[in-house]
Specification:
- The protein contains nine helices and 18 strands.
- It is α+β, with helices and mostly antiparallel strands.
- The strands form three sheets. Strands 11, 12, 13, 14, 15, 16, 17 and 18 form an eight-stranded antiparallel beta sheet that branches. It has a six-stranded antiparallel beta sheet with strand order 1-10-9-4-3-2, with no helix packed on it.
- The longest helix has 20 residues.
- It is globular.
- The model has no long low-confidence stretch (mean pLDDT 96).
- It binds FE2/S2 (inorganic) cluster and fe (ii) ion (FE2).
- The site of FE2/S2 (inorganic) cluster (FES) has 8 residues, from loops.
Length: 437
């Protein structure tokens, strides 16, 4: 059970909170590189409860900094992105992408003190078509994580962004809660609808899997398992990785190169960022040749605004009950009546409230991956806060290389050995790097 005190520790991400400090140890993906064009408009970016702006100068360098000008706190969102820096429009002070004040044009030359003033700027990098930000205190930023999908070139990836209006933890927990798949997403699919070679048949034939869970070097992992034919077992392997990554099991493990980040914007908003290898095998159609009803492939978005929460907002949302189709629900065409797998999860996560009241829960054995992950997060956040212990993966970016999720049918009883054996046979489209760039 998660008590009220632990709940606070787990969910709050602002500066000075236990989880917020843990998150600040890591590189965080924050935006698409294309959202920040050279000499373009500053972008409002909310990250870990901090209001930031992002901009790219004419040379291509990205700046991510506190939106408040260090002079008298006017918002640099209104600034002019010009000649290698952002100029505050209040009194004309100008800052480069590292936050150095390079001009103070409202002061006589003998009163200029620009070398003493710095905007609060964070380190940035670009990888996999994403802008990454390091918000921690180290003089030398840590290496970037060796997460398989993030090592692919942008051209080989399908990125997806979507804002979720709830706390990051309950959003992430949807990804490590595998038994919901047989209800929320495919509750109306019957075994006779599924082709013989489709591993979905095991899930719709048995909606109550057994579990193994364990701590790992990168976070936690589980296998949900069910009996298959000829003494084999149908295994679903999936992972949590520090601080907010998941690898979900739906799909063949052979080429399942994908990673999902649940990046806290503040305590009540989360940016979901997923990277998927374009060559990854897609979910097969049902026996009828039709896709799974409700599994619409593309998300519709509201028009972007410049608000802190104006990017990547799905068109189906709480204001329209996620466009639920009660006839489709009643007639068992779509179990939820809600189209798109992501939106089915979104509706459910947001329906729990901005932050789940953990004291109201009745955690079941099917939730053991969730309880283990909460514990792993709590212990790491407390060890950092109380003893200064560096959390997992920060200085060992290669620990993430072993996190691959997906399904397979294999013999064996030792689930971790089955995972190790299967991992040796998967496709590896990337080479893991030993050290940071
Ligand atoms: S507030 Fe920005 S230059 Fe004065
Ligand atoms: Fe889901």
């Amino acid at each position: 059970m998660t008590n009220a005190f632990e709940s606070e520790e787990l969910t709050r991400v602002g500066p000075g909170t236990a989880m917020g400090q843990l998150m600040r140890e890591y590189w965080l993906p924050a935006a698409k590189s294309s959202e920040v064009p050279p000499d373009g408009d500053p972008l409002r970016l909310m990250l870990l409860g901090e209001k930031l702006i992002a901009f790219r100068d004419a040379q291509g360098k990205i700046g991510v900094m506190d939106h408040r000008c260090p002079h008298r706190c006017a918002s640099l969102f209104f600034g002019r992105n010009e000649d290698g820096g952002i100029r505050c429009v209040y009194h004309g002070w100008k800052f480069d992408t590292d936050g150095n004040c390079v001009e103070m044009p409202n002061l006589p030359a003998d009163q200029d003190f620009k070398e003493k003033v710095k905007a609060k700027a964070y380190r940035t990098k670009e990888r996999a078509g994403l802008v990454w930000v390091y918000m921690g205190a180290r003089a030398e930023a840590p290496p970037m994580p060796e997460i398989e999908a993030t090592l692919l070139d942008e051209a080989e990836l399908l990125p997806m962004f979507a804002q979720r209006d709830c706390n990051w933890l309950q959003a992430l927990e949807g990804d490590i809660d595998t038994s919901h798949f047989g209800f929320l997403h495919v509750g109306s699919v019957r075994p006779e609808h599924v082709g013989d070679g489709d591993m979905l048949k095991y899930q719709v034939g048995n909606r109550a899997p057994a579990y193994h869970v364990a701590d790992t070097d990168w976070g936690t992992m589980y296998s949900a398992y069910r009996p298959a034919e000829d003494g084999n077992t149908y295994w679903r392997f999936a992972h949590f990785g520090f601080p907010f990554w998941t690898w979900v099991p739906q799909g063949d493990i052979t080429d399942r190169v994908q990673a999902r980040a649940w990046v806290p914007m503040d305590d009540h908003h989360t940016m979901f960022i997923s990277l998927t290898w374009k060559k990854m095998t897609r979910m097969p159609p049902l026996k009828s040749g039709q896709p799974i009803p409700g599994a619409a492939p593309v998300l519709d978005y509201l028009p972007k605004t410049t608000d802190w929460f104006g990017r990547w907002r799905p068109a189906a949302n709480v204001s329209n009950d996620y466009m639920i189709d009660r006839d489709a629900q009643r007639n068992d065409v779509i179990y939820t009546g809600i189209s798109h797998i992501h939106m089915q999860d979104q509706a459910i996560n947001e329906s729990m409230g901005e932050i789940v009241d953990h004291s109201f829960e009745h955690i079941a054995p099917s939730d053991q991956m969730i309880t283990r992950t909460r514990r792993r997060l709590l212990l790491a956040a407390r060890a950092l806060r109380d003893k200064g212990t560096t959390p997992p993966g920060v200085d060992d970016p290669l620990v993430y290389a072993k996190a691959r999720s997906g399904e397979c049918v294999m013999p064996g009883t030792d689930w971790q050995q089955v995972y190790e054996d299967r991992l040796k046979q998967v496709l590896r489209p990337v080479t893991f790097r030993q050290a940071a760039e």
